[in-house]
Amino acid sequence: MSKNDHDLHKRDKCADPSPYPEIKVVRENPFYAALLMDDYAGLISEFTAINQYLYHHLFFEDIDEELGKLLENVAITEMHHMEILASVIKKLGGNPIIRGTYSTCCNFWNGTFIHYGSGLCERLKADIDSEYKAINEYNKHICMMDDHYIKAILQRIILDEKLHIKLFNKALLKFCGCTYRAIS
After folding, report:
1. DSSP states of 78-108
2. pLDDT tens, position by position, 118-129
3. pLDDT category of residue 37 using cuts at 50, 70 and 90
């Protein structure tokens, strides 16, 4: 997938406007691939976010069509992140199967990773928490890697995650009368 293909997959208002960097790596690196497997389909991962947001979407669309669409579009943006990570993992010599590495003890992903929650406000707060946790994991992995291409890719994904926090907080203010900042 080329750089322009990634920009075509952006969801309106759910992705930062800046372009995604080209999917490149300095060289194959199994350790980096293993780190990214956790971002891909580990406990705190794009795969977890996709499934959590789609689950929440099922409830939110009954409350407010625009809120339901927001969760659906954010999930699609997370799918795009997952696709990017899969491409990087492959270039690093890894195999992007649906499992984490360190966060899951190399076990496959499962539905217990999702925060299902109850009620709109609790679910939105859980979604905000998920974004903060993802940013923390990406920043940790950026510090552990010496590959400027991967760092640029992860920093670009972080821009989308920060936007998702803003969008979820806007919805939280509208429907619950508050905003939320996760404690890291």
Report:
1. HHHHHHHHHHHHHHTT----SB-STTTTTPB
2. 999 999 999 999
3. very high
Count of CB atoms within 10 A of residue 139's CB? 13
Cα 18 → chain centroid: 17
Residue 180 has pLDDT above 90, yes or no: no
Q: Are 51 and 124 in contact (CB under 8 A)?
A: no
> Phi and psi (nearest 5°) for 27?
-165, 165
**Residue 89 burial by CB count (10 A; 0-12/13-18/19+): exposed, middle or buried?**
buried
Residues in contact with 21: Cβ distance below 8 Å, sequence separation at least 6, in sequence order = 3, 149, 152, 153, 156
Residue-wise pLDDT tens digits, 1-36: 455 455 555 556 899 999 999 999 999 999 999 999
Q: Scanning the structure block, which residue is given the tokens 């920093």?
A: 155
Q: Quickly list DSSP for 139-157.
A: HHHHHH---HHHHHHHHHH
